[in-house]
Amino acid sequence: EVQLVESGGGLVQPGGSLRLSCAASGFTVSSNYMSWVRQAPGKGLEWVSVIYSGGSTYYADSVKGRFTISRDNSKNTLYLQMNSLRAEDTAVYYCARDLRVDTAMGHYYYGMDVWGQGTTVTVSS
Amino acid sequence: DIQMTQSPSSVSASVGDRVTITCRASQGISSWLAWYQQKPGKAPKLLIYAASSLQSGVPSRFSGSGSGTDFTLTISSLQPEDFATYYCQQANSFPFLTFGGGTKVEIK
Fold first, then answer.
1. Which of B53, B87, B91 sits opposite A45 (nearest CB)?
2. Are B94 and A107 within 8 A, CB to CB?
3. Contacts of B43 in chain A (CB under 8 A)
4. Quick check: A111 contacting B, CB < 8 Å?
5. Which end of chain B is least crowded, N or C, by CB within 10 Å?
6. Digit-coded pLDDT (tens) for A39-65
7. ω before B95 within 30° of 0 (cis)?
């Protein structure tokens, strides 16, 4: 079964750090594009970051310089290292398989077809 | 940055009704648009990609249309399990993605 399971959320003080994990089963993380998406309480969805199968990484302006996306191929796991956390980073964080192809010939997008259950991050003193 | 505006923000409808949700992009995005359904406390679910392609396993009562800046998601005959919030997402500004603000479909 194709599945993503997040962990690592919790309560952290402003300025603190947290690392989220997203363990995949049924498919290989390193062969896919993988994204993190977050949802603040009562709000809509916000794309946070993507890691390409080739290893390139990209971030939303709201987290650039503070968050780092990475993966461990041996563990088939995606990570999001979050530093210098702010109250506005409080949200449920989802990892998702991102069906895109981005090459010099062009790009194609087929949506995010597999999602984790989400992990809650609360930034508060 | 490309902004995505959904309307209405909420709609009340009855089982069996036809429901149409609109998503407008601040600039042309070709057909690089996806639609998701989200129920309370759950992760989003992919319904439509490339503006009009139905994701595998999604009921045929869901359909998408549009290109450029204006897109629609239509539920032809609303079912009890369709009461949820729906989001559009643009993917023209690679590698960056943007979601719309969401449309909540409520029971009338």
1. B87
2. yes
3. 94, 96, 115-118
4. yes
5. N
6. 999 999 999 999 999 999 999 999 999
7. yes
Query: Do the Cβ atoms of B94 and B57 come closer than 8 Å?
Result: no
The one-letter code for the residue type at B37 is Q
Q: How far is CA B84 from CA A12, B95, B107, in A?
A: 31, 28, 10
- Residue in chain A closest to B55 (alpha carbons) equals A113
Sort A54 into a burial class: Cβ within 10 Å, 0-12 / 13-18 / 19+. Answer: exposed
Across the strands, what pairs with A109?
A: A100
Return the residue matching tokens 């987290």: A63
What are phi and psi for residue A40, nearest 5 degrees?
-65, 155
Cβ within 8 Å, pair A45-B95: no
pLDDT of B69-85, one tens digit each?
A: 999 999 999 999 999 99
